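Chapter summary example.
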Amino acid sequence: MAELHTGVGRQRGARPWPRPRRIATLSVHTSPLHQPGTGDAGGMNVYILEVARRLADAGVEVEIFTRATSGDLPPVVETAPGVHVRHVPAGPLEGLTKEELPGQLCAFTAGVLRAEASRPPGHYDLIHSHYWLSGQVGWLAKERWGVPLVHTAHTLAKVKNAQLAAGDRPEPKARVIGEEQVVAEADRLVANTAVEARDLIDRYAADPTRVTVVEPGVDLDRFRPAPGERERVAAAARHRLGLPATGYVVAFVGRIQPLKAPDVLVRAVAALRERDPVLADEVTVVICGGPSGSGLDRPTALMELAASLGVADRVCFLPPQTGDDLPALYRAADLVAVPSYNESFGLVALEAQACGTPVVAAAVGGLVTAVRDQTSGVLIDGHDPADWARTLVRLLPDRARRAELARGAARHARDFSWHRTASGLLAVYGEAIAAHRARLTSELAGGPAMSCSW
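The structure predicted for these 454 residues follows.
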């Protein structure tokens, strides 16, 4: 396989990167204004908004196009200086699932093209699409506007279908075809990790020279270890959230759906009760999030599972947390669990570690990058509840080991920031713009299409 590029430090030589003035960011199926943890809102929402803010700080205007899902919001919302979210009417405001959105891509695309048509020619220098639905829109817009398309998949159907949770629905063939088309047409593909880059190349036949790894980041000002002795900080956070003052807290944060596998954690507590009932009675599992995806079919399924396994008294459910309450939850926990069947990166793992909390995660996808095994947390092969229970037995009573992992977690997270992510993306944007200009120059001169190598 060809050597992969990384977004940080990619520039070679003294020639400066072209810098976009304005970019159009496409996020069809979910708005960055939505609360992560419910519906289709998750790490991608955080990614889009945080990156947009850092790009604006660097002098690049960002306009985010998303589908209108509420009549309460104005057509355009300024979330920060230089960052605007534009709500595009496309289908009903409510009651439309992600699976039904392909039928609204024509309407959404028309709205995006109309918005650009009202601007002076050449208003946008580049398009960055997120998720395959947005890539389909970006594919057409780039042809109409004559600008390059940068695409980030965030999740891939072929990967999800290969690692499907029991009882979960496979991604449809239409999505697979749509992703293949976007991969073929995008000028540059941004992967969150080297694992995702390999998936793009091996499973989707992506051109390796167009694939760049730019890792997501974390807001290190918001997610950080609180000052003071950790146990005292945790006690204050538990009091704030109404969690037990004593015993161990293991937290799951995310959308409640089979892909995220919160049931693995609930089953692990049941296995722990059989293995070490005294320890099990000291553990509180916190499930923070709302039903999503196929989890909407039975919104109370996880509660019913806990009751059927006899551990309902050990499981606490919280809605998605906002503001300072989310960092407080991470600090309140002794461990944060991320048992997903697949993650393109795993922002929850990074946020928790930034707060100084070790993470126990499945060794899948981007989690092998987000968590440094045995340094900032522990990676577990597979989803056998017995294996997860054994890890809890080993870690929870070992205060010294958890303290060591907590220190490693905070150090590991400091290697990631949204400024670093934005810098990597600016390098990708610059290369895409330069290659696009070189191709246009060659075509105008009557020569063969060329790519630009730095």
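To summarize the output: Residues 234 and 331 are 5 Å apart (CA to CA).
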